[in-house]
Amino acid sequence: MSHGKQFTLYSHKGGPNGWKVAFVLEELGLTYESVYLEFSKNEQKAPEFLKLCPNGRIPALVDHKNGDFVVWESNAIIQYIVDKYDTEHKISVAPGTDEYYTQLQWLYFQASGQGPYFGQAGWFMFYHQEKLPSAIERYRAEIKRVLGVLESVLSKQEYLVANRVTIADLSFVPWNIAAATRLLENFDFEKEFPATAKWHKALFERPAVKKAWAEREKVLAADQ
Asked: What family is this (predicted)?
């Protein structure tokens, strides 16, 4: 560990999933160094990275304070961070409580319901070798279905768990930004999903989130 910080976060400059982890690290004031892998060079499939993450995808986190322990899969990383280091439960709830499992439920939903469908929309819109309108339509419909699930809950309560911000809420932010800015056409977030838009705006205004996102904009701008 040459950089002297507690964590090394293997991430990607543009991809949403690494930034979820950055949000949580920033919220807890934990020190980390980000290593941004270049997908165009297939660095996520390089043998040295596969030793850390056999799935060959970002993010992966190395905890130098815990014997260089490695965790991969973004929401597993997030859960690890708060279970080990959010002892005051600033952005998490106590293990073993009912609310802990509600928090886990939303993390699983984000990982299985939001990320893959939003990501597939992006793939078929921007990267697939041929345009497949039926695929784009399917995944855009799934984006709105997921937002509808959130709306059904957030129209009745301010946050997903425990009436306060937790990792459950923070995990949704980057992909929601992608949906609102790139993945949906003629989309009026506040009109179509007002409670979810209000929740998202409140999360995005948090200093830790703004700090991490400003870093994202900085590293992306450096490539232009």
From this structure: Belongs to the GST superfamily.
List of domains in the chain:
7-91 (3.40.30.10), 98-204 (1.20.1050.10)
8 Å CB contact between 174 and 17: yes
Element (H, E) at 32: strand 32-36
Q: What is the Cα–Cα distance from 6 to 33, expressed in whole angstroms? A: 8
> What is the average pLDDT score of the chain?
96
SS3 160: coil
What is the identity of the amino acid at 2? Answer: S
120: helix, coil or strand? helix
Contact 173, 20 (CB under 8 A): yes
State how far the alpha carbon of 28 is from the alpha carbons of 62, 95, 110, 203, 219, in Å: 17, 18, 21, 15, 22
pLDDT at 154: 98
Cα gap 70→7, rounded to integer Å:
10
Query: What distance separates the 2 farthest-apart alpha carbons in the chain?
Result: 50
For 115-132, what is each residue's pLDDT tens digit?
A: 999 999 999 999 999 999
Within 8 A by CB and 6+ apart from 172, the residues are 110, 114, 150, 200, 203
**Residue 2 pLDDT exceeds 90:** no
Token readout for 208 is 């830790």
The whole-angstrom separation of Cα 201 and Cα 134 is: 31
Using DSSP bridges, classify how beta strands 32-36 and 69-72 pair: parallel, antiparallel or unpaired. Answer: unpaired
Mean pLDDT for 44-72 is 97
The values of phi and psi at residue 13, to 5°, are: -60, -40
